[in-house]
Amino acid sequence: MKQSFVCTALVACSNWALGHAAALQADAHNYWLRLCTDCVPRELVHAPGVGFSLSTSSGTAAVRFHNGTIAPVARVVGSLEYQELMFHLADDPPSWPLNPWERLKDELRKAKRRLNKSRGLPATPEVGTLSSMIEALRNETESFLGHNVTSVVVSVPSLPTLRQGHEHIEDVQDAVEYAGLEALRPELEEIQAGFAGYGLGLCKHYVDIEACYRERLDMKMSDVLALSYDRYSLTLSRTLLTTPLRQRVQAHFAGDWSLGRQVLDTDLYWRAHPTEYWGTIGEFIYNKGTYRRPESIDVVLLLGECAADPDFIEVLQDVFRGSGRMTSPYYSHVLSGTASLGGQTNQGRLSANDTLYMAAKGAAEIAKRVQEAPPGCREPEFCRGNREDPEAFLVKQEL
Ligand SMILES: *[C@@H]1O[C@H](CO)[C@@H](O)[C@H](O)[C@H]1NC(C)=O
Ligand SMILES: *[C@@H]1O[C@H](CO)[C@@H](O)[C@H](O)[C@H]1NC(C)=O
Ligand SMILES: *[C@@H]1O[C@H](CO)[C@@H](O)[C@H](O)[C@H]1NC(C)=O
Ligand SMILES: *[C@@H]1O[C@H](CO)[C@@H](O)[C@H](O)[C@H]1NC(C)=O
Ligand SMILES: *[C@@H]1O[C@H](CO)[C@@H](O)[C@H](O)[C@H]1NC(C)=O
Questions:
Q1: pTM
Q2: Does the N-terminal or the C-terminal CB of the chain have fewer CB atoms within 10 Å?
Q3: What is the pLDDT of residues 206-217, one digit of tens each?
Q4: Residues of the signal sequence (predicted)?
């Protein structure tokens, strides 16, 4: 069961990397061990990985260096159009083209998008809004690094309308392209990026695809609840994850835009009744996030700039108290407000910056791994040796 799940994930991941892979072994048990058709250039192995996270109200960027350090780069507050777009995306029912008529309309819609793109315009007005955000993040990252950024991994809120295959994820994909960037892999949901940001479900030996595969066999599947809390909204998603790299996540999602942290300052009623505000937050999390067997939740991911707020963490402790899970290591990490960050255990309390940048850091970690080790194929033995010799890497290696 577990084995077949891992294989599916690997095969799915390798689909987009087929350009790099040649199927060598037809053996059913080893079919993931393809040999790559070329070596990863030395520059790419050493290049920092860049991750962007789009939240419902802002965007964040982080960089993962070759030495393992993950640095927060910048936060860009979303324009009014950006925030409204996210709000509407949360409201929109996700749609699949089903009958022939709907499929025809979908083709027409795609043709119109292509027409705009061929004129050098954003495919849709939404693409324009999203690409301004992505371009701003790119600009910040370029001035942080001091050189151009060409490829990224992007994470998006776990909204059902932003799933792979839906119309609006095309807007994100086109926006990345319009901002002059290449996406290293399909967009991650925030819950996946957060999982990676907290250092969960990641292989130690990610460059060695076989070792990584064996590590994955020992990984436990976790029932994950991600809470994203900032000044403007509280959203949550819940799903089962073994590694952050699953293709179609389909997390359960819920969001409330009237419970953002700012209402404690701006709303007269909540300002006078803060206890009631925190009670409402607790009810929302309990009703929407733990709707199914709260005691089976293994991991709680705190994301967003207000998620490390001590009052918020106290509410969470109340919600989960009595579920008998408070002793699990993840719980004691997360709910005591500490966490293992990017593989380095941070004994201090989580800060607002930690939770704010967590998803972008996870995306950056994954970007670094994808750059360094193409998913779905194994480098020929000589690649590592060749990389020691810079001359050999002035030209792209061909088998
Ligand atoms: C890792 O590299 C970055 C960029 O070169 C540098 O700023 C950072 O201090 C390094 N970290 C360690 C632990 O060496
Ligand atoms: C194409 O661009 C125009 C101008 O920005 C916009 O009004 C129109 O809605 C776009 N087409 C689609 C299919 O969104
Ligand atoms: C990004 O930088 C370019 C060039 O410096 C500039 O033209 C553009 O307006 C900037 N974009 C944003 C969104 O800040
Ligand atoms: C960086 O990108 C800008 C345009 O975005 C381009 O004009 C410039 O030549 C690039 N620099 C390098 C070193 O590639
Ligand atoms: C949060 O991170 C930003 C960007 O790196 C930095 O400028 C700011 O000082 C940090 N704030 C705190 C409280 O550490």
A1: 0.85
A2: N
A3: 888 778 888 888
A4: 1-21
